Request: fold
Amino acid sequence: DWSQYRGPNQDGIAAEQAAVNWPASGPKVLWKVPTPLGFSCFTVADGKAFTQVVRDVGGAPREVCLALDAATGKELWAAEMGPGTFDKGGDSGTPENKGGNGPRSTPAVSGGKVYVFTQDLVLLCFDANTGKQVWTKDLTKEHAGRNIKPWRNAASPVIDGNLIFLAGGGPGQSLLGIDKATGKTVWKAHDEIITHASP
Reply:
């Protein structure tokens, strides 16, 4: 399992040993699924792979959390999270830089729940098996959130024990500790404005 951004130990290191005697053509492709638009990494837990993409929903681009069967690539569920338009993202660099736009946060998985953080500072909790929304927390409304302009949030939720750590609140609450079971704020502190870094 690779349960959150930078892995289960938050150090970017996978402890497993992998066979590296691949043929010249590379490892065998077992499945391939398009994941349109975005910079979200994958997290993997309990045989499921999760990421964030942009999809057309009812004629409009929407940010979506996607759950796939890790063994087959079969889509298990997709949950809409918010607007899927991204101003001045990966295409706004130099003329030859056309990296694309899309979600920049990576889901975190713990205890049968998936936690996703949108570009608009909204944290959502979904049931990992069904995709049903369990709770939501809007940092802009509940914690005087201050987003980055024009790119907006690129940070991922970080889980340690029973807490989810997020950045993005206003003065006195720029770093938040959120109870992962209920979505309630356990503590808040500091005055920094967020960067693109995860806590």
Summary: The radius of gyration is 17 Å. The helical segments are 139-143. The chain has one helix and twelve strands.
